[in-house]
């Protein structure tokens, strides 16, 4: 049985459905993956995730390496057993977080090495939906120490300081892959340089070519470690396309990454998921060049429900983003377009204090079936953590249910109708 099984293709777009086969279960695509950065999806436990139901969750190598450490997780038999999750898990390589630490906009717009003033987090702005699309807890704005130079890069890899205690750490392609093997996710990622979208083409090319060399090293390390695998399940490795906002570089990267023996293809970079116009352009550039028989993963997409549909229209099978749960913790909950054109409301607004209706009357999540807007509003107003939990359950269910709608629409060749309904 192949890792990825293509099932249906939309006749008017690149939208498609498929099945990813792993030893921890099948994943129906297209699929949104809730982000469990530190072996937990914030405010939820694994029973909540099972009840959504989530097919797969994402963990973060950077955070799990810093605490509790990959060796401890490995001693428990891997992340599945450590966190009591029996479905598939994907881990990113930690590259996004490492390079977020080093993001700096200097006059030349070429350096990823910060000055002694480490600045703000990647995409760090006040609106919780527009901050770091993957995870902000690793970024300098949350660092309580003046770290000075947080990141330094060389051909072999990256040296960085922990945002927790300032201790020095080293990631190379080989180390990042070994950490992920110890963590034990079903799907792991090659180590890459996550290139900002504001760099000049010269630096973007240098970073892309370094990413290509690291991709080959990641693949070689994965193959060697796989021969020594003592687990009773297989791990699959994805390569990552980079190239910033430059069409020629993205196309070159797509061709090179596709030429290697990866199990899946990911599209990375700062602009992916954050700037959907740029994201759509990048997807248009690369998708004619990447293999159809492998899953396509756009990293960091999910700030808005419509972003998922745009990505699906362009041929994406997998996406992840912290926004649904981060928004929920700030009282921002998703609704259909008939309720609000922006597809979300702020449940903390006093106008919901006596509202007897569900957050979204069409939603069948645990929150909407059992609780009123007034009750959820009260929980936030009272500072009760259960308000964050109920809002997070709703937002994740909303995204996962939209994926169900997308899969059904593609199978019935009605994806265009679904797009018109939402966009």
UniProtKB/TrEMBL annotation:
Residues 127-147 have a biased composition (Basic and acidic residues). Residues 110-121 have a biased composition (Polar residues). It catalyses: 7-aminomethyl-7-carbaguanine + guanosine(34) in tRNA = 7-aminomethyl-7-carbaguanosine(34) in tRNA + guanine. Residues 14-112, 149-422 form the tRNA-guanine(15) transglycosylase-like domain. GO terms for molecular function: metal ion binding; tRNA-guanosine(34) queuine transglycosylase activity. PANTHER family: QUEUINE TRNA-RIBOSYLTRANSFERASE. Homodimer. Within each dimer, one monomer is responsible for RNA recognition and catalysis, while the other monomer binds to the replacement base PreQ1. This is Queuine tRNA-ribosyltransferase.
